[in-house]
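Hi R.,

Here's the chain you asked about this morning:
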Amino acid sequence: MILFYILVLISPMPNHPLFEAPFAGLTVVKWLGILCCGYAFLTLLVSRRLPAFVKPWEIRSFLVLLGIATVSFFTLSKTENLTFNPIFMYFNYLPLFFITICVVNTYERLQNTLLAAIAGVSVASLYVIREFQASGGTNVRPGYIAGDANYFATCALLVIPMAVYFMKMKGSRLRRWLCAAALVIILVAFTLASSRGGLVGLCVAVLYMILHSGQSRRSAIVIAILLIPMLMFSPASPLLRMMHPNYGDYVGAQVRREFWSAGMDMISNHPLSGVGLGNFTARSLSKEVEGFQGIACNTFLEVAAELGIPGLLAYCAVLAGALSSAGKLRAEGKRRDNTFLQYAGQAMQAGLFGFSAAAIFVSAEYQKPLWIMVALTAAVPTLLRNRLRHSEHVVQQLSTASTPNCSVSDAHFEDHPTDPIIARISDSAFLNGADQRTVFGAS
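And the predicted structure, written out as tokens:
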């Protein structure tokens, strides 16, 4: 399982020299993924129970998106000028979904995976801060290890709400302090990345946290207290770039508008098929910067331009399915009075909303942290189903121990008068992945 946590931890660092180094024909991260696949198959064989692979709507929508992308690639794509093969990226997400749904099968593993995601962005943040410091403050938009300043800021939005909620969740004091330290480090690096789109996404995530629960207002105030001084006085502040853009900011905005216009033309001319997977760059040309070709700087626009309106609908359905699954986790937490489930669901939703808002200003459809978060939400139905079976087993053990003549149906946990107590015992056992016999002392 530790290999999967490492895979999640390194996902925000696509240019890390260690994990991207070639080894026996493949990169280290690919070998890590292969080992995780082997562990997932082993877990599947040991459990002898098939997870809900295609039940989540985000998985079904992704399969539709994958089908559209595959047809587009083999019929329309001309990706000779790209530094990566986009169809390989889509197919790489299939084993990621398989691994995550197989191995994240207890609440404890879900919690550890989310903590690994926070730790990964924290490490990437340290690299961003170090790049800024090593340049003597002249590199006002660092982010090479993290791929790009905009990509770093966009992916950081997925875990910032998580760090906030875990920081205020009761439990280990060490975990709370580590999450608080991680939040400070991430916000410092987020400011240095100076992403205007990232700032918009952060505002959306914070607004969701405020509107969704009155208890989140304190968290929003904490973020504001930490951010406002940095936004006001940092030389790389995205707020200052908005209020006082320099010549480079002006040119960047002009080029972005040109590419958005080009993308809209592609959609109007090819509404059903698009121009082909990965073909946006080849068909876009800036007039502001002569001879410059680039990406759409808008995830939704780029997906629609390359894969047509059906591709855009499938991509949006993936995000909607992920938000729905996170909402189910949050609702289960409320029903069970389980703080972790409630906070995890809310944090996932806030992060996805923030990422989606920032994705309007950057082409982020291939960012691995997004797909890891989607995979975690896809594991929710299997998690809830496993917990239900554990709860039923707990009720059966209790009914057998206390009232031997009572039928199991009479003690079903949904209608049992000791519902909250049974739920807490079962959740505790399931969180720790414990055998129920150890809970009740049965031999």
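The CA atoms of residues 245 and 294 lie 21 Å apart.

Let me know if you need anything else.
M.
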